[in-house]
Amino acid sequence: MPRLALRVLAAVVGTLTLVAGCSGGDDSGSGKGRRPAGEQVTIRVPGDAPTISAAVSLARPGDLVLVAPGVYRESVKVSTPRVTVRGESRDKVVIDGRLQQPNGILVTAPGVAVQNLTVRNNTQNGVLVTGSAKAAAGLPGQSGGYDTGDEPVTFLKSFLVSHVTATRNGLYGIYAFSAQNGVIENSYASGGADSGIYVGQCKPCRIVVRDNIAELNAVGYEGTNASGDMYVVGNRLVGNRVGLTTNSNHQEKLLPQKGSVIAGNLIAANQQTATPEQADGGWGIGIGIDGGSDNQVARNRIVGNSNAGLVITATADIPPVGNQIVDNTFTGNGVDVGWTFPTATRGRGNCLRGNELRTTVPARLATTASCPMSAKSTSPAGQWAAPTAPGGIPFTDVTAPAPQPQFPNALTAGATAVPAVPALPDTADTADIPLPSASLLAADARVRTS
């Protein structure tokens, strides 16, 4: 097949040459000029374009931007649908914000895949996927997150973040906000001054967060106002200040949070001192359900969290209702399960069944709040002596990550076709998600788990 050279004049970087397979002869023009409709090409950085941003600006739907090893001091905005941005080497392709830009990669178009690279040193987020114009403009709320005011809720539809390392970012490592129909998988997040991985303001989310590692963050995973077909499965959330939270928050829209499945995760030793301080002072907690409802917490291994393995509480005027805590293993936590409602807002219909645990507050919850439970039944509450949270460290000082697993066939695989809706676990699938093995406490660990 003959080859066509597309010559592109870039205003600030000179003449770029893009080589692609097609059926025509020579053609010169703009970067998105007279290429045959539907033709997909690979744009190489720096071979065809000197920067990732320049390559993305040339890309059409279905193209692959393939990035060679190097440190790229830029902020990349992907606003063309169905573009794949992939590093040749996860650890050696580094987008470095130098603490001078809010986002490493900002995705505002559907069907985009971000794969096999590292994002670090951004003042807000490593990777932000969003349908919100205000969030894309970088307008943080008062305590992290995005308060978008009277902006209507607009969802970005479909995304994939895979084999990404996000470290030392000022808010979130990987952040899906006002987005639906996506997957965050096989990624690593550390040094998030708010959360390593965050999903916020979606209903129904139709999002799967699976097989990731989050450590040395203020919070490992956080889901705020993230409701409906929201799956957090098979992750390792170890050595943060707080392992995982699912919560309702008036700062974001689509209250209240409902309907997450949190299953098969390893959640351990979340009282690591050399971490950024958590905004609400959280410390030593495995799972926190704060004003969230109808969540299923099943077959997680929750170990060695000095305050509590799992806490259920209320968010201001929003009660937690109908959360089911089923078949989890709790070991070595300060309190295994604690329910506390310090305001007049009380929980209802929360229940436990089949868990391996030692202590609850109030006592005998496994008997007095056994599933099934009427949604009108007021949840009992108690208090316990919680450890004092020590001071943290700047997110810029968090220990650098070790090398992480590579995306398979990164150099030879074509662009990734992101489905309009990801394959979601059905009821049978979630029932088959196993309890993590105790041996995983030592696997790939960089923090103390005992």
UniProtKB/TrEMBL annotation:
SUPFAM superfamilies: Pectin lyase-like (SSF51126). Keywords: Repeat, Signal. Residues 167-337 form the Periplasmic copper-binding protein NosD beta helix domain. Residues 1-20 form the signal peptide. PROSITE patterns: PROKAR_LIPOPROTEIN. InterPro entries: NosD_dom, PbH1, Pectin_lyas_fold, Pectin_lyase_fold/virulence, SCF-Subunits/Alg-Epimerases. Pfam families: NosD. This is Nitrous oxide reductase family maturation protein NosD. It comes from Streptomyces bluensis. The lineage of its organism: Bacteria, Bacillati, Actinomycetota, Actinomycetes, Kitasatosporales.
